[in-house]
Amino acid sequence: MKKYPVNKLIVLLATGLVLRAFFYYNPPVNTLKVGDAAPAFAITLTDGKALKSEDLKGKPLVLFFYANWCPCSHNSAPLVQKAYAEYREADVKFLSVGIQDGESDLKDFVKRHQFTFYTGLDTSGKVSDVFGVTTTPTTIVVDKDWKISGLIVGQVKTMKTIEEKISEAIYGRV
């Protein structure tokens, strides 16, 4: 009595199901675009305090989603810190959101780049999910009316790029 063909059939079916799930699974993603209302969120900051979107409403906000393993996040970080230094007097709030890494890696990133603004860890993915972030880095600029006024998906390559998005959030379309 030979069970070889039955075992082979089971392996082929299982492989087929795994491949089907891999290629056809589309997780729900909340894709935001310029002009959309920014979603509400809550995040725990690296200092252990809680920050809610309600605490920031009425002020422009720059969210910088990063991952320690991502070279483009490392390349963007100095420009985001420089933008914070330039716009903090205009009461623009900044929040870096570490995703796709463990807590120690995310904290290492913040320490390495010497962020002096709010830094939060989104190890559960809740904040990145509500903003529809699937790529690092992603920079989202929210205006004082809590509308998305700018998106940068991928590396922030120049200071001019981020300055234009922040200026739009403060003054409207430039």
Topology:
Elements: H1 4-24, E1 42-45, E2 50-52, E3 61-66, H2 71-87, E4 93-98, H3 103-113, E5 118-121, H4 126-131, E6 138-142, E7 148-153, H5 159-171
Parallel strand pairs: 3-4, 4-5
Antiparallel strand pairs: 1-2, 1-5, 3-6, 6-7
Structure description:
This protein has one domain: Glutaredoxin (3-Layer(aba) Sandwich). The protein is built from 5 helices and 7 strands, in the order αβββαβαβαββα. By secondary structure, it is of the alpha/beta class. Strand 6 and strand 7 (148-153) form a beta hairpin. It is elongated.
Q: What is the CATH superfamily label?
A: Glutaredoxin
The gross shape turns out to be elongated
Oligomerization state: single chain
What's the N-to-C terminus distance? 79 Å
Radius of gyration: 20 Å
Report the β-strand fraction as a percent range.
15-25%
Structural class: alpha/beta
Number of strands: 7
Mean pLDDT: 87
Residue stretches low in confidence (pLDDT < 50, at least 5 long) are none
**What is the third-level CATH name, the topology?**
Glutaredoxin
Major beta sheet, strand line-up? 2-1-5-4-3-6-7
Shape-level CATH architecture: 3-Layer(aba) Sandwich
Total domains: 1
CATH class: Alpha Beta
Supply the number of helical segments. 5
Helix content: 25-40%
**Biggest beta sheet attributes:** 7 strands, mixed
* Elements, N to C (H/E): HEEEHEHEHEEH
Features:
seven-stranded mixed β-sheet, alpha/beta, 174 residues, Glutaredoxin
Quick summary:
The chain has 174 residues and is of the alpha/beta class. The chain contains 5 helices and 7 strands; from the N terminus they run H-E-E-E-H-E-H-E-H-E-E-H.
